[in-house]
Every structure is written in structure tokens, then in C-alpha cells.
Automatic annotation (TrEMBL):
PANTHER family: EXOCYST COMPLEX COMPONENT EXO70I, EXOCYST COMPLEX PROTEIN EXO70. Belongs to the EXO70 family. It comes from Hibiscus sabdariffa. Residues 303-654 form the Exocyst complex subunit Exo70 C-terminal domain. The keyword Protein transport applies. Keywords: Exocytosis, Protein transport, Transport. Residues 661-706 are annotated as: Disordered. Residues 673-682 have a biased composition (Basic and acidic residues). The keyword Transport applies. It comes from the Eukaryota. This is Exocyst subunit Exo70 family protein.
Length: 706
């Protein structure tokens, strides 16, 4: 068993030694192979070095070729794009010619506007293509120049070809410049821009203001509220906007603005001319002073209406159109400047008429029209400043404010000068010979009543307040509008009162001053009460200043006119003796009584006037109460002495007194007949109105104290 194992082990050792010998033999052969390979590698390296030296020039040429290819590609690609732009421009030009032909034969307005919009779009596309050519030509030429210089520098081609390329490049540059300039300034684009200018003008002319001048009425009629109308459809406005932008993009902005301003000014002016404003031709103060008052009054009323219509309707529409058409231009506020240019000349005509009126003679009746003008400007002020906004409209707004200042100054001057004319005897007329109410008083009262109505009181108060601010400064303590107006009216009323007192002293007749003062003060009181004038001054003021003086003057009139008649029948001592002398004395008194009555009657018929029926009725009643009871008592007292003769009865005397106040003489010859049957005339019933004349018999001291 052990021997077998040893044999097996020995066999394995022999086999391993055999393998080792074989491995040693293989290693020897590998060393020889490596030496051979090393020799081969040296040979290959030498071959590669030789090949590298031979390939190096070819590599340089390859790199130069790649650089040339890069430059050529960089120049050819933009050049191809430029050629494409030329092709586009040619196609747009053909399309433009087709659209122009279609546009020239189209008669339907709506379809024509749509085709015109396509025409504008084509013009924009052509302009864009030409601009693209103009923008890209220089870079393309520059890149081609770089290729030629590279060929010349690297000598990639022969000199002959290089020179040909240089000459071609120069020719190409000149061709591009002339061609592009021709396309921009002498070709279809220029013709299209001229057509667009004509179309722009035609469309603007076709946009008219509607309903202007169709509802003409006199100044008394109720005027319709101004309505702002659209001057064109959305499509028409869009086309105008696109045309304006196209013209502006092609250096035609000034032409576009000139066309717009010229056409729209004419359209606005023609719209207002439909109102027939011939009065605006007269505008200097001297010319206005020569106008008849009725004509001037009508002209001012029309000016107010037309000024408001121009601002609220015509200019609002024009401003809107300016913004819609020109608002998208690069110059942001150019549309505002255009609008102001359109409105400036028209507004100047309105302003100069208003300024002429304000500077003309300050006649009293002008006050109301001046206030109407001022009030209309005040109501328009906010809207006016909004319409003429910004720096562009500053000059027009300044002139607007200057006109307002002139109207304030003129209105206040007219009012204050009216008070000065009233005071004293500056009106140049003597008082009425019959003591009636003079025209000046009637005019002044009606004037002030009209001034205190709702229409004129607020503007007048505003004028007075503005004037006070100018004089005292805006930081000073100011009175309210109502107090200012009340004080101003009170001053004028007091001037009128002083005028009355001054004129009353010019009468030679001692009774006429009382009749004159009574008539005038009663007239002022009755015409002012229950009116805006009376409410402004206050009832207490009116009673104290006018009613009480009228009552006092009535008492003085009665005392001096009828007092002597009553005193003729006063009792005397001799009347108590029943003798022939007493009878003659009593009858003599009656004769003197009727003689005096005749004289009083004649004076009233020919020299005294009490025009107010209510005042006359109250005086008649008071005089009857003064005279008839005394006469009746006298007849009753001396009835025995007067028997055998018929005398005027107390009832007939009452009728005769009534006739005196009716302003008639029943006999026609200035004498009163005593026949009772013919002399008895029923007295008129006195008119009963609120505030009747009461308590006529008052002390003199009250009148003298007033």
C-alpha cells in the first residue's frame, strides 16, 4: 500500500520536471521574439516620422480650407436671406399694384374701407421688407468683403480671381445702394405713400359733425342738451390710425399732421358756420357800441349757446378723433398738440367777441348779459380745463381765465356805476310835475328785481366775491355770497332813496313833495314785497325804509292838501249867536268850503297824480273819513240856520271826494254844483290788499327822523 503511494508521487514529480523543462524552452523563444519586435517597432517609428513630415503641408491646407469654408458659409447665409427679402419685396409690390387697381374701381364705401385696410397692411409689409434689405445689406457686403480679403491674404486662389472678386464686390455694393434707395424713395412704396396721404385727407373730410345747426331756435327757446357724436365708424378710425402710423414710420409725420390739422379745422369750422354766427364778425368794442341793443342782446345769447356747443360737442368729438387716430404715434402727446391747433383759431374768434363785449361801454342793461356770459363760463370751466389739458392747452386756458376776469371786472363796474348814476340827479331829468313815480325809479326797481332772481343772483354774488378776493386777498376774512349781494343791493336802494329825496326838494308846490315821496316809496315797497328782492332785503327792512315813509308822506299830504278845508268848518264863538250875521257867517263858511274844495279838486285834476290804485283807494277812504264827518257835523249843528236852501249832502260829498281821487271833474268846468240829485255819486270801494296803508295820521317827527 505504501509502495504504491510512493510510486505515484514519483510519477507526479517526473511529470512536473518535464513541464518545467518545456516552460524554460518557451521563455527562451519569447525573449528572441521580443527582440525581433523591438527592432520592428523602431522601423515603424522611423516610417511614421517620415510620413508625418510628408503630411504636414496637407494638414495646413486642410485647416485653411475649413477656415475658408466657414467664412464663405457665414457670408452666403445672410446673402441668401437678403435675396429672399428681395423676392418678398417684389411679391409685395405686385400685390400692391393689384390692391391699388381694385381700390380705384371700388364704389361701395364699406368694402372700400376694408380694401384700403388691406392696402395699408401691404404697404407696411413692403416697407418692412425694404427696411430689412436696407438693414442687412451692409452686414452682407461686409462679410463678403471679409471672404475676399481672406482669399487675398491666404492666396487660396490666384490673383486674377481675387481681383475679379474685388471688382464684383464694389459693383454689388453700388447696386445695393442705388436699388434700395430707389425702392424707398422712387418706387412703388413712394407712390403708395402718396396715395395714402390722399386717402387720409379724403377720409378725414368725409367725417362730419352731425345735427349741428339743425335745431336753430331763438334765445328764449329751450335748447337741447349737446350730444357728442362719433365722427366715424370703428373701421374708418382704425384705417386712419394705421395710415397715420404708416406715414409716420416712413418719415411723413409732418405731412400727416399738416393734413389732419388742416382738414379737421375746416370741418369743425364748417360745422359751427352752420349756426350762422355772423355776429362774430363784429368784435371790437367800438363796433359793439354801435350795435342796436336788441341785436347785441341776441348776439350775446347766441354766443353763449354756440360757445357751449363748440366746447361740449364739436371739440370733444375732435379731441376724441385726434386721440384715436394719432394717439398711437411714437410722439406721445402729438395728438394733444394737433387738437389744440384745430381748436385754437376757432376759440380765438369766440374769445375776441367776448372780450369786445366786456370792454365795450358799461350800460346798465348790459349787466344781465355779462352775468349770463360769466355764468356760462363758470359752468364750463371744469370741462373746459379737462378738454384743453396739459401744456399744449395752457394758452387757451389762460385766455379763458382772462375773459372771465374781464367779465367780472365789467359786471362789477356796470353794477357800481349804476348806483352812482342813480344817486343825486345824475340821470339828468327833473322830477315829474304831477308827483308820479319817475321812470328812473321804475327802471331801478325792476332792474334790481330782475338782478335778484335765481338766474342772476348767484352769478352776481360770485362776481362780487371774486372782486372782493382780488382786492382783499384770498387769505382775508370774506363775507358770504348772500351777504355781499344784500349789501350791494342795499347800497343801490339807498342811492335811489337819496335820489328821491334830492328831487323832492325841487318842487315849488308844498304838497307835491309829499305826493312824490309817497308815490315813489309806495311803488318801491309794493313792487318789491313778495319778490326775491324783498326776500333778500327782508320784510322788516322794506317796511322801515319804504312803507313807513310812504305812510308818513301820505299823512303829510292829507294834512296839507285837505287840512285847510277841514279847518274852515271848525267851531267859532260867533257861531253860537242866532242872528242874521251868524247865518251869513255860517253860509259864508260853506261857500268858502266849496270854493276851497273846487280848488283842491282842480289841483288834483291838473297837477297831482296818484297812479297806484290801491294807494289811491286808501287815500280816498282816509280823506272821506277826515272831511265828510266834519262836514256832516257842521250841517247838523247849523241846520236851522241853513234851512230854506239845499246843500250838498254828506253822501254826495263823499262821492265828490271819490271823484277827486279818480282824477275827474264831474261838471267839466271846474265848479261843483250843489244840486243833490246830480252831485250824488257813489264812491268806489277801496282795494283791499295785504299791507294796506294804515294809521295815516302820525306825528311829523317820525318822517323827519327817517
Amino acid at each position: 500500500m505504501a509502495a504504491n503511494e510512493v510510486d505515484s508521487t514519483l510519477l507526479k514529480l517526473e511529470s512536473a520536471c518535464s513541464d518545467l523543462r518545456t516552460l524554460l524552452q518557451s521563455s527562451a523563444r519569447l525573449g528572441n521574439d521580443l527582440e525581433e519586435m523591438d527592432k520592428q517597432f523602431d522601423s515603424i517609428d522611423e516610417t511614421l516620422s517620415t510620413a508625418a513630415r510628408r503630411v504636414a503641408p496637407l494638414q495646413s491646407l486642410s485647416m485653411a480650407a475649413k477656415a475658408l469654408e466657414t467664412r464663405i458659409n457665414r457670408a452666403v447665409s445672410p446673402a441668401l436671406d437678403l435675396l429672399h427679402s428681395f423676392k418678398l419685396s417684389e411679391s409685395f409690390q405686385r400685390k400692391l399694384v393689384e390692391l391699388s387697381d381694385k381700390l380705384s374701381i371700388e364704389k361701395n364705401p364699406r368694402k372700400r374701407v376694408k380694401k384700403l385696410l388691406k392696402y395699408v397692411q401691404c404697404v407696411d409689409q413692403l416697407n418692412e421688407a425694404i427696411n430689412l434689405i436696407s438693414r442687412d445689406r451692409e452686414p452682407v457686403i461686409q462679410k463678403l468683403q471679409e471672404v475676399v480679403e481672406f482669399l487675398s491674404r491666404t492666396k487660396a486662389t490666384d490673383q486674377y480671381r481675387t481681383e475679379r472678386l474685388k471688382e464684383t464686390l464694389i459693383t454689388l455694393r453700388a447696386l445695393y445702394e442705388s436699388e434700395v434707395d430707389a425702392m424707398k424713395f422712387d418706387g412703388l412704396l413712394d407712390e403708395a405713400l402718396l396715395n395714402l396721404q390722399d386717402e387720409f385727407e379724403i377720409m378725414l373730410q368725409q367725417m362730419k359733425h352731425q345735427n349741428i345747426g339743425e335745431q336753430q331756435a331763438d334765445e328764449e327757446a329751450v335748447q337741447p342738451v349737446p350730444v357728442v357724436s362719433e365722427l366715424g365708424t370703428e373701421m374708418e378710425v382704425e384705417v386712419l390710425r394705421r395710415i397715420a402710423e404708416t406715414l409716420a414710420a416712413n418719415d411723413c409725420l409732418d405731412i400727416c399732421i399738416d393734413i389732419f390739422v388742416k382738414v379737421r379745422y375746416r370741418r369743425a369750422a364748417k360745422a359751427l358756420m352752420r349756426l350762422n354766427p355772423d355776429y362774430l364778425r363784429t368784435y371790437t368794442p367800438e363796433e359793439i357800441d354801435e350795435m342796436q341793443w336788441e341785436s347785441l342782446e341776441t348776439a350775446i345769447s347766441l354766443w353763449i349757446q354756440h360757445f357751449e356747443l363748440a366746447v361740449k360737442t364739436v371739440f370733444v368729438s375732435e379731441k376724441r378723433l385726434c386721440k384715436q387716430v394719432l394717439g398711437g404715434l411714437p410722439e406721445v402727446l402729438i395728438w394733444l398738440e394737433c387738437f389744440v391747433k384745430i381748436a385754437d383759431k376757432i376759440m380765438a374768434v369766440f374769445f375776441r367777441f367776448g372780450e369786445g363785449v366786456a370792454r365795450s361801454n358799461r350800460e346798465p342793461q348790459k349787466l344781465f348779459k355779462l352775468l349770463e356770459m360769466f355764468d356760462s363760463l363758470e359752468k364750463l370751466k371744469l370741462e373746459f380745463t379737462e378738454i384743453f389739458e396739459g401744456e399744449s392747452g395752457a394758452d387757451i386756458c389762460i385766455r379763458f381765465r382772462e375773459l372771465e376776469k374781464l367779465l367780472v371786472h365789467a359786471s362789477s363796474k356796470v353794477f357800481w356805476e349804476f348806483g352812482l348814476q342813480i344817486e343825486g340827479t345824475s340821470d339828468g331829468f327833473a322830477p315829474p310835475q304831477d308827483g308820479s313815480v319817475p321812470k328812473l325809479v321804475r327802471y331801478a326797481v325792476n332792474y334790481l328785481k330782475y338782478l335778484t332772481t335765481e338766474t342772476y343772483s348767484a352769478p352776481m354774488a360770485k362776481v362780487l366775491l371774486t372782486e372782493q378776493i382780488w382786492k382783499a386777498g384770498i387769505l382775508s376774512k370774506l363775507e358770504t355770497d348772500e351777504n355781499l349781494l344784500k349789501d350791494a343791493i342795499s347800497n343801490t336802494m339807498e342811492a335811489l332813496q337819496r335820489n328821491i329825496e334830492s328831487k323832492s326838494s325841487s318842487y315849488k308846490d308844498k304838497i307835491l313833495p309829499h305826493i312824490f315821496i309817497m308815490n315813489t316809496h309806495w311803488y318801491i315797497y309794493m313792487r318789491s314785497r313778495n319778490t326775491e328782492l324783498g326776500k333778500l332785503l327782508g320784510e322788516q327792512y322794506m317796511k322801515q325804509k319804504y312803507k313807513s315813509i310812504a305812510e308818513e308822506s301820505a299823512y303829510m299830504y292829507q294834512w296839507q292838501a285837505w287840512g285847510p278845508l277841514v279847518r274852515l268848518l271848525e267851531k267859532e264863538e260867533s257861531e253860537e249867536q242866532d242872528t242874521k250875521a251868524t247865518t251869513a257867517f255860517v253860509r259864508g263858511k260853506l261857500e268858502a268850503f266849496f270854493k276851497c274844495f273846487n280848488e283842491i279838486s282842480q289841483r288834483h285834476a291838473g297837477g297831482y297824480s296818484i297812479p297806484d290804485p290801491d294807494l289811491r283807494a286808501q287815500l280816498r277812504g282816509a280823506t272821506v273819513k277826515l272831511v265828510v264827518p266834519v262836514y256832516s257835523e257842521f250841517l247838523n249843528t247849523h241846520s236851522t240856520l241853513l234851512s230854506g236852501k239845499s246843500y250838498v249832502s254828506p253822501e254826495s260829498l263823499q262821492g265828490l271826494v271819490g271823484q277827486v281821487f279818480n282824477g275827474t271833474d264831474q261838471t267839466g268846468n271846474g265848479r261843483l254844483k250843489r244840486q243833490e240829485s246830480k252831485d250824488r255819486v257813489s264812491a268806489r270801494n277801496s282795494v283791499s290788499v295785504e299791507g294796506d296803508l294804515k294809521n295815516l295820521r302820525r306825528s311829523r317827527s317820525k318822517y323827519t327822523d327817517v
